[in-house]
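tl;dr need the bound structure. longer version: we got a ligand (flavin-adenine dinucleotide) that a collaborator sent over and nobodys looked at where it sits. i said id run it. heres the input, straight from their email, havent touched it
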Amino acid sequence: MWTIHLPRWSTGLVAFVGDAAHAPSFLSGQGSSLALVGAYVPSHAGRAGRSARTGLAAHSAAFAAYEGRIREFVRQNQALATSGGTALLPRIAEELALRNNAR
Ligand SMILES: Cc1cc2nc3c(=O)[nH]c(=O)nc-3n(C[C@H](O)[C@H](O)[C@H](O)COP(=O)(O)OP(=O)(O)OC[C@H]3O[C@@H](n4cnc5c(N)ncnc54)[C@H](O)[C@@H]3O)c2cc1C
């Protein structure tokens, strides 16, 4: 539902983070949080892997670690878009009434 889903977030020396990699929906929120986590994790993974590897190998290892660590977190946050959407965008009269009567 209006979310970005890429099969992978990096290639070679280039990696996507934030909305470019995995924009959530406004129905899920969390876009800023995911962008911050997505910016922090690969930079941290890069520092951790620098001593053992260099160049493309270091980047590949860091980007694989980045994706391995947060892809499930991203999936869970994007899934929020389909669990609470009727409160924001009611589709039928019953959903509208449910939202309007919610406390
Ligand atoms: C109306 C609206 C409300 C939102 N409300 C919330 C909310 O309440 N909570 C929440 O968590 N998220 C919210 N979001 C989502 C959140 O804003 C984004 O998920 C988050 O900003 C993504 O961060 P980002 O760094 O990936 O991308 P962006 O914040 O979009 O940053 C990308 C930057 O790259 C720049 N840029 C683009 N192309 C180029 C180029 N060629 N060269 C140089 N620079 C370039 C852009 O100008 C921009 O500054 C909202 C989004 C919108 C549109």
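gonna send this back to them w/ a short note. Residues 35 and 41 are 10 Å apart (CA to CA).
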